[in-house]
Amino acid sequence: METLFIGIITTVFLLCIAFIVTFIYQFKNTKKLKEKVNSLEKKIKVSKDLVHEYDINFQELENKILFGSDPDLTEYVKIIYWESTENSFQKSFDKFPMLDLKVIEYGLIRMKTLEDSNDLSKFLPPVIVLILAFIASYNDFFKQTFFNDILFLQVGFPLVILLVVYLFLTKTIGDTRRSRAAVIYFNGLLQYAKDKNDKE
Q1: Contact, 70 vs 117, CB < 8 A?
Q2: Helices then strands (H, E): number in the chain?
Q3: Within 10 Å of residue 36's Cβ, how many Cβ atoms?
Q4: DSSP character for 100?
Q5: Which of 172, 144, 170 is nearest to 157 (CA)?
Q6: Which of 44, 89, 186, 187 is deepest in the core (most CB within 10 A)?
Q7: DSSP one-letter string for 6-59
Q8: pLDDT of residue 52
Q9: Residue 99 DSSP symbol
Q10: 113-118, Cβ contacts within 8 angstroms, sequence gap of 24 or more
Q11: Would you give the distance in Å from CA 24 to the centre of its chain?
Q12: Tens digit of pLDDT at every position of the chain (200 positions)
């Protein structure tokens, strides 16, 4: 009984540490994203003399918007957002209004779809519930079948499963958040281009 109690306390303690690490990791990513968004206005005002020769291939961009698959377009948008130099933001704002208006409008529709597909709130809660239900359902089965006489494994096996699930979810959440941030940014660029075309 005492060993089981120690096992439960250890499991709870490790889960608490895992959640704290996840919170810190997500907090740092969110802070970095906010800093990038907040500095966007300054980047737009950079003098054109200081702009590097980096440029987006707008022919390729149009092809990705019109004909690229969702994963392909998402990866391309992530490259533009996460790997662009600071000064390339200026060129993006200068040149995006030059895209064909129909391409811009179709791009906005695709960005909305990609934003929805990368919305964690729509799929994460059900996934977590299903995983926990699976673990709860099969925990007794594994205990009785494989670990009947080994108390350490009775406590340790669910812990290992939870750790694997936690690592998988952390990676998935991180990738999805990065994709969604890039899609939202790109959607903003296209909306800016559409508004500018509408005014003209």
Answers
A1: yes
A2: 8, 0
A3: 16
A4: -
A5: 144
A6: 186
A7: HHHHHHHHHHHHHHHHHHHHHHHHHHHHHHHHHTHHHHHTS-GGG--S----HH
A8: 38
A9: S
A10: 113/70, 114/70, 114/73, 114/74, 114/77, 114/179, 114/183, 115/180, 115/183, 115/184, 115/187, 117/70, 118/74, 118/176, 118/179, 118/180, 118/183
A11: 16
A12: 555 556 566 666 666 676 677 767 776 767 666 666 666 545 544 433 333 334 577 788 889 999 999 999 999 988 888 766 555 666 666 777 888 889 999 999 999 999 988 888 877 788 888 877 877 777 667 666 666 666 666 667 777 877 888 888 888 888 888 899 999 988 988 998 888 888 76
Residues 6+ apart with CB under 8 A from 111: 183, 186, 187, 190
Closest CA relative to residue 113, chosen from 74, 86, 148 = 74
Which residue type is seen at 60?
E
Q: Give CA–CA dist 121/143, Å, rounded.
A: 33
Neighbours of 148 (CB within 10 A): 11
| Residue position matching structure tokens 């810190």 | 24
Burial (CB count within 10 angstroms: exposed 0-12, middle 13-18, buried 19+), residue 16: exposed
Name, in order, each residue with C-beta under 8 angstroms of 182's C-beta and a sequence gap of 6 or more: 74, 77, 78, 80, 81, 82
Phi, psi torsion values for 111, nearest 5 degrees: -65, -40
Q: Quote the CA–CA distance of 83 and 103 in Å, as a whole number.
A: 23
